[in-house]
Amino acid sequence: MKTLASLMVAAAWVWAAPPPPDCKAVPGWTQQGPVRSFEADNLFEYMDGNAEGYLTYSFQRMQGVTCVKGEDQIVFDISEMESPEFAWGIFVSNRNPNQPIEKIGMAGQIMERRAIFAKDKYFVEMAANPAKDHRPVLKQFVALWEKRIEGNTSLPPVLGWFPEDGLDQDSMRLVPESVLGFRMLRRGFLAQYAKGKAFIVMPEASTQAASALLKKLADRIGGTQPAQAGEEAWQANDKYLGRMCVFRQGKYLAGYANLPADADPVPLAQKLAAKIQ
Q: Of 22, 30, 80, 211, which is the most exposed, with the fewest CB atoms less than 10 Å away?
């Protein structure tokens, strides 16, 4: 017998899940073949070598369908990620850096043969064939599903924590594993500046865990000196990461790295620490 709690969880899932991809939503388009459905343990059956790129962004499940109209075809997939942060992160990793980003959900792009966008914890992809300009119909499909998928349309709040002075806005991204190349810094956000880069690691379970991680990283870097930033901090001059300052603010580890010898990382770290909430 199902408990009230299990029924509430099931009801929440039904409410939260987006409608399955539907070709008939745009007049003249029909479904070719069955609806595709994949989870983390069998995504490789669909994507083969590309599956790992999704799994690193905490992929949960996917539904997809192929739509046809005459000789035209659109392969349409909706992937559910663990959170909106990961949906935005996989969008950034798949975007065309030479094309503008549009305000579709959190962010999106519509190109001649491809459209992608992220909304809430969902990443939507549409790939069109044959080779020609499919933007008019892609815009129709995108407009419909941007409305049908419920949830958050705001960018991850952590992006607003990076100080704007010298920031390359297009460089901000989610690093799904090994921030700064350290496996212990499991996941986080990275932003490039005119000098060096800033990073914010996703929060640890507690302030104690974050403090222990700060010390573990200091031991790994070696030759660190105490610094005044956040609640506790250190600075170093690393062979590979240049001048750097890493601090803890609550459950977060963050800081600056890859700064040249003439740049002081501590004032920069202080400005970043002041914005972390």
A: 30
